[in-house]
Design brief:
Layout: H1 21-25, H2 40-66, H3 72-108, H4 113-142, H5 146-184
Helix pairs in contact: 2-3, 2-5, 3-4, 4-5
The chain binds fe (ii) ion (2 copies).
């Protein structure tokens, strides 16, 4: 089911009120003290932290290339390595969420089941941004002329910003929806 336009990843500013039922019982500042935190919950947050860090590094490297802090010869292999790892890890992560975790969590808390549909739709939106990321990175790596490369790098940096903003929105909303259900029902 597609979420209403107000719930799309590009426009959303927080987890919608209707999906905050379980979060109200298990607010974010109580998670770490929960007796079951050091299982699936902590693992989930660690995975998300790794995605945030990889995107931060990619942004910092790309700004470094533009302002001369990083040489093109060192930037290119870093971009290939980090970019491939980010995309591979993210696609695998989305797949297990869509196929395994979201259906199970929605079954445990049917009152917020539509929230998991929203997160599933986010993944599709993120896959569009990933495609753009891949073609932008290939353009950066493929340009040999200085002027053309600077232009490709500038465009890539803009796309990277949009990707990072929407990925962070998704990760935060997902944590607010998922973690309370995982902790409440001792999943994992
Ligand atoms: Fe997700
Ligand atoms: Fe996730």
């Amino acid at each position: 089911m597609d979420p209403s336009p107000a719930l799309t990843l590009a426009e959303r500013e927080t987890l919608p009120e209707e999906f905050r039922l379980i979060l109200a019982e298990h607010p974010r500042d109580s998670w770490a003290a929960h007796r079951d935190f050091n299982g699936l919950a902590a693992f989930w947050l660690e995975r998300h932290l790794a995605f945030r860090r990889m995107l931060e590094m990619l942004g910092s490297d790309t700004r470094g290339l533009l302002d001369g802090r990083i040489a093109a010869e060192s930037y290119a292999p870093r971009l290939s390595r980090l970019g491939s790892r980010l995309i591979g890890d993210l696609m695998g992560h989305h797949q297990i969420e869509d196929d395994v975790y979201f259906p199970e969590l929605a079954r445990l808390e049917p009152r917020i089941a539509r929230g998991f549909d929203m997160l599933d739709a986010d993944h599709h939106a993120l896959h569009g941004l990933i495609d753009r990321f891949v073609s932008g990175a290939n353009a950066v790596l493929g340009e040999t002329g200085e002027a053309a490369r600077r232009e490709a790098v500038g465009r890539f940096l803009g796309d990277l910003g949009a990707f990072e903003r929407q990925l962070i929105r998704h990760l935060e909303d997902e944590e607010d929806l998922v973690l309370p259900v995982v902790l409440k029902h001792r999943v994992g």
